[in-house]
Amino acid sequence: MKFMFLSAADKAEAWREAILAKFPGAGFDIWPDEIADKASYDYAIVWRPPVGELKTFPNLKGILSLGAGVDGILSDTELPEGVPVVRLVDRCLTEGMSEYVLYWVIHYHRRMGVYLNWTRNGTWKQMRQTDTRDKKVGFLGLGELGSDAARKVAALGFDVAGWSRTEKHIDGITSFHGKDGLVPFLNRTEILIVLLPLTEATRGIVNKETLAALPEGADIINCARGAHVVDEDLLAALDGGHINAATLDVFHSEPLPADHPYWTHPKVTVTPHMASLTVPSSAVEWMEENVRLIEAGKAPLNTVDVKKGY
Ligand SMILES: NC(=O)c1ccc[n+]([C@@H]2O[C@H](COP(=O)([O-])OP(=O)(O)OC[C@H]3O[C@@H](n4cnc5c(N)ncnc54)[C@H](OP(=O)(O)O)[C@@H]3O)[C@@H](O)[C@H]2O)c1
User: Separation of 121 CA from ligand 1 center, angstroms?
Assistant: First the structure.
């Protein structure tokens, strides 16, 4: 069995070690330098492949994504037909994302940014503390990542809701779905977390209209994709005061360009697309399971629906 590895963002040697531990004797070649006979590869392990590259490997049985989001694979308009694209679903990735979300939800709920600014300047001052049960947190996206984070935020006592394409029944989470559910969901959301896949239906979903539907003083955490947000609309809403603050992990262009206003905006916190990173020693378990399923002639888990875009 032979794997080809293509990613500018992941540590290839860590993956080589992890894959060869699971598949002793397998081939593992790193694109482009180690690739020789393209017809000899069974699996492509990839993150943002160049358009048209994967179709030049004629015998692939599976395209295994190094991340949960597959927009960077589906943007290849020439993907080989009939080869399943399998997205990453992994315990470590899910737990890492929930940690990131919990951290920032608590940060905004307890107004830690304001307190840290005060104490750094030698100011001793207290604000009225509010009841956690009255704080309404909302998740755009209740999939693998959104539902885990939503459950954990709810376990702390917050009043949690989520919005998805199809209706969900999750204990302790109020479910909104579809186009009609979006505005009622936003109307009640004081801390908004974006955990949607990037598709044609979700691109630019955080815009002038949806921001206006949030209550005055809402906070935003975007840990999905930069293109979910219309930057000018968010900056206008922050400057106008309707939105209190935003934590942004993902951007239209990454690394975030040096002259982008987000870097210095007093109400914006930038993190470098680290909300949850893939840990090879854990994610390889999922890869092994899917390769074994494909080798046994069965359908892999978490196959992407190319038409839906996620
Ligand atoms: N910043 C980071 O470090 C980082 C790390 C990992 C992932 N991510 C991002 O997180 C995203 C979510 O990952 P995931 O594993 O949770 O994805 P997932 O399991 O596929 O869940 C996606 C959720 O979004 C909902 N959704 C999709 N299209 C929708 C639409 N048009 N309207 C309403 N709801 C819609 C889905 O609804 P249904 O359940 O009804 O289908 C589902 O609840 C990834 O795509 C990736 O971009 C970021």
Answer: 40
